[in-house]
Design brief:
Blueprint (H helix, E strand, L loop, with lengths): L1 H40 L4 H8 L19 E2 L7 E5 L2 E5 L3 E5 L6 E6 L5 E6 L2 E6 L4 E6 L3 E6 L4 E6 L5 E6 L5 E6 L5 E7 L3 E7 L5 E10 L2 E10 L7 E5 L4 E6 L5 E5 L2 E6 L3 E6 L5 E7 L5 E6 L7 E6 L5 E7 L5 E4 L2 E5 L3 E6 L5 E6 L4 E7 L2 E6 L2 E4 L2
Antiparallel strand pairs: 1-32, 2-3, 3-4, 4-5, 6-7, 7-8, 8-9, 10-11, 11-12, 12-13, 14-15, 15-16, 16-17, 18-19, 19-20, 20-21, 22-23, 23-24, 24-25, 26-27, 27-28, 28-29, 30-31, 31-32
Length: about 400
């Protein structure tokens, strides 16, 4: 029958199309496997490729063209200058003002005089939080505008900001006690929690704005200790507490995966899932020289065996607490930063190292006047006295 014939023809055509699709899929799979084998044989570093060509959101990036004639960029003051990449912009906070510039042409995107006596700044994604430590003023900004500025009921000891604009801060009361407060970008209070573990000295909030940790200093059995406590947003009880001896608090920071780094003067630990401790360098076992974080908030850390040692080790510690890269340094660095490479500032040079292999990529001579060096795209931006410049 003609109708059956047409059915058979359609079925035969469909089978041919399916076979063709399967053939294409197999060809693509074979090509992918072939490329992976070649890359493995050639020892191509996958993470180096990802970091070099993609941003933290997985979007393809391109090399930045910089008008070097626009530099040096002059600052209003050289006091307590902190330079930090924020997205693809540069944030500059000193003792009088906060400024955000476009690194390609040094044009000011956003600037204000803060008037804070003791300004402390924290960054997350496109947000940064500035607060007056020991006073009651606090503000939230984006790279191009202010979100809010507010006054707290009591003096602020410490604060941190998440990628969604939530701010966790700790305020001190007259009786010596302190309180953890979490607010969102509309100034709505999300949480209040009384702290009873001792004298609060630090706080961190994860990128989602839902996990919090704080540090307290106290004494037990005549020993000076630091207690790190974890709690989740909205909880009335803490998740866990950990005591550390033989060192002093330096920093708390959540990785993008919400694992918590604790950096002290003599060690590094990671707290997983708010309750499981992993000690990368046990408290009291090393001496911290300097540290910083990657765009994924993973730790790059320099330590020595004793405080005056010239032999230092630079390590990249992933969010599990494992040392993934280790680099021997024959001199003491002043400052480090990290993107797809680790940028190390010494008193006489700036060096770039592979973050995954540890090999030296390149180095530049400089003098001891530099205070920071940050690599953005293909350029290194340095700070010296009252200027920001591009390193050639």
């Amino acid at each position: 029958m003609p109708s059956q014939k047409r059915v058979n023809e359609r079925r035969e055509k469909q089978q041919k199309n399916e076979q063709k699709t399967k053939t294409i899929i197999w060809i693509v799979l074979i090509l992918v496997i072939f490329v992976l084998i070649i890359m493995r044989i050639c020892e191509i570093d996958f993470k180096d490729i990802k970091n070099r060509y993609f941003d933290e959101n997985g979007h393809l990036t391109f090399s930045m063209t910089t008008n070097e004639n626009a530099y040096p960029f002059s600052l209003s003051s050289s006091g307590d200058v902190r330079v930090q990449p924020i997205g693809d912009k540069i944030s500059i906070v000193n003792d009088t003002s906060c400024t955000v510039i476009n690194p390609t042409d040094a044009k000011i995107i956003y600037s204000y005089n803060h008037g804070y006596a003791n300004p402390i700044v924290k960054y997350a994604g496109n947000y940064f939080c500035l607060f007056d430590q020991g006073a009651t003023r606090l503000r939230l900004d984006r790279a191009n505008k202010n979100v809010f500025e507010t006054k707290t009921d009591k003096p602020i000891i410490c604060a941190d900001v998440s990628k969604n604009g939530n701010i966790a801060y700790i305020a001190r009361y007259e009786n010596g006690k302190s309180e953890l407060v979490v607010i969102n970008s509309t100034l709505k209070k999300l949480m209040k929690y009384s702290i009873n573990e001792g004298y609060a000295i630090g706080v961190a909030i994860d990128s989602s704005g839902k996990k919090i940790a704080y540090a307290c200093a106290n004494s037990k059995n005549a020993d000076f200790i630091t207690t790190i406590t974890t709690i989740n947003l909205g909880d009335s009880e803490k998740r866990a507490s950990f005591d550390f001896r033989d060192s002093s608090f330096m920093d708390l920071r959540y990785s993008t995966g919400s694992r918590l780094y604790y950096v002290s003067t003599r060690g590094v630990s990671v707290i997983k899932n708010q309750k499981k401790l992993f000690e990368t360098f046990k408290s009291g076992s090393v001496n911290t020289v300097c540290y910083n974080y990657t765009k994924d908030n993973e730790l790059v850390y320099v330590y020595s065996s004793y405080s005056s040692a010239n032999e230092n080790k630079l390590v990249y510690i992933n969010s599990s607490g494992k040392v993934k890269t280790e680099i021997d340094l024959n001199k003491k660095p002043k400052y480090i930063s990290a993107t797809n490479e680790i940028c190390v500032l010494f008193k006489d040079s700036v060096a770039l190292y592979s973050i995954t292999k540890g090999e030296l990529k390149t180095s530049y001579k400089c003098d001891d006047s530099l205070t920071s060096a940050n690599k953005i795209s293909t350029k290194i931006f340095i700070t010296r006295h009252k200027i920001i410049d591009v390193l050639n």
